[in-house]
Amino acid sequence: MPTPSRETAERLDRADPLIALRERFSLPEGMVYLDGNSLGALSVGVPAAVQTAIVENWGRHLINVWTEDGWWDVPLRVGDRVGRLLGAQAGQTVVGDSTSVHLFNVLTAAARLRPDRRLLLVEEGGFPTNHYLAASVARILGLEVRRVPMPDMASTLRRLGERVAVVTAGAVDFRTGELWDVCAVTDAAHDVGTLVVWDLCHAVGALPLTLDADGVDFAVGCSYKFLSGGPGAPGFVYAARRHHGDIDQPLSGWHGHAEPFAMVPDYEPTPGIGRLRVGSPNILSMLALDAALDVFDDVEMTAVREKNVALGDFFIEAVDAHLAGCGFELVTPRRGDRRGSQVTLRHPEAEGIMRALNKQGIMGDVRPPGLLRFGFNSLYISYTDIFTVVEALRSCT
Ligand SMILES: Cc1ncc(COP(=O)(O)O)c(C=O)c1O
Ligand SMILES: Nc1ccccc1C(=O)C[C@H](N)C(=O)O
């Protein structure tokens, strides 16, 4: 590999089979947007879709939108579209509430499926909301939470065995971008009869997922990162079909009822994934997500993955070549197959460096302790963007 340069970046862009997809996103002129792992860019089809939903559907059909326009079933229809990206057959994914709400619901439901077990394992270093919610579930159900580093998760499961009700972890570490082996941890859990709840916020839309094939029990995630659903877009929840009949979720709202319009006082969950619905969803946001998902109809996730691994490789090689001695430490694994779609660098001056990048129109973010995160969305990031960032990092250290 020659030393990464602007010329190599431009050559790689010319050979990039996904480069044309950039036109499907509306990015400010001159901005290099490497924060799509926090909030995805606006997909050009979204404003018109939301405008139509407001003016044509809501504006003209009023209450009948729920039936005539099929809005009652949008959480299931869009759920299946997300499910396809999860490697899930139809009828196992629903969109509706935030990741946090879905996580609370399925952690509780999963723990209730293992009533004789008292331990809840949570990935150490996982996203804070996951810790906060696991602690709450533990208080409600009288469980004990143990924080476990991901490299030790499988061996810990083997050691603690049948004491563990549920294990929850993110497929990709939100700080370091490290990708964990979903299948191996799921197998280790199942070997001792433990259920798994995966958080796919940083994985969905970035890499091919195979939840059905991996035998995953439950998964949750958001749609505002790599799926570009928009700020506060509804998250999704997956539950393997084999669990549907037994799920007892704590937020037993009327949208999950078998006959919501019977208006009866007793809760009778609908068969199937619909029982994970709660109350009236944020439908306009859901329709924005629906429009944003169109781009995934025209692209293979293997191609998306191939490109984000290559973008990460190019970034790491350029950092090695041009930023040696500038105080950066790579905290993301070098190996492409052990990374998600982000690369993180540690630097003692991280905050100041990011402010300087922002002034040059480059967007990434900073997470404690001193971590500069750069997300690479294959649908709209080019090799030239990556080289621009590395040059800017050099100029501000
Ligand atoms: C891994 C992970 N889990 C959960 C969340 C929280 O999701 P929400 O705010 O949609 O509930 C985020 C990001 O905010 C995240 O990165
Ligand atoms: N939803 C947000 C709203 C405001 C600012 C950031 C977020 C994030 O999503 C943070 C992200 N989950 C992270 O990986 O840090």
Automatic annotation (TrEMBL):
Cofactor needs: pyridoxal 5'-phosphate
Keywords, alphabetical: Hydrolase, Pyridine nucleotide biosynthesis, Pyridoxal phosphate
Keyword Hydrolase carried by entry: yes
GO cellular component: a single term: cytoplasm
Catalytic activity: 3-hydroxy-L-kynurenine + H2O = 3-hydroxyanthranilate + L-alanine + H(+); L-kynurenine + H2O = anthranilate + L-alanine + H(+)
GO biological process: anthranilate metabolic process; L-kynurenine catabolic process; L-tryptophan catabolic process to kynurenine; NAD+ biosynthetic process; quinolinate biosynthetic process
Binding site for pyridoxal 5'-phosphate: 99-100, 199, 202, 224, 254
Source organism superkingdom: Bacteria
Pathway the protein acts in: Cofactor biosynthesis; NAD(+) biosynthesis; quinolinate from L-kynurenine: step 2/3; Amino-acid degradation; L-kynurenine degradation; L-alanine and anthranilate from L-kynurenine: step 1/1
Oligomeric form and interacting partners: Homodimer.
NCBIfam families: kynureninase
Name this protein carries in UniProt: Kynureninase
Gene that this polypeptide is encoded by: kynU
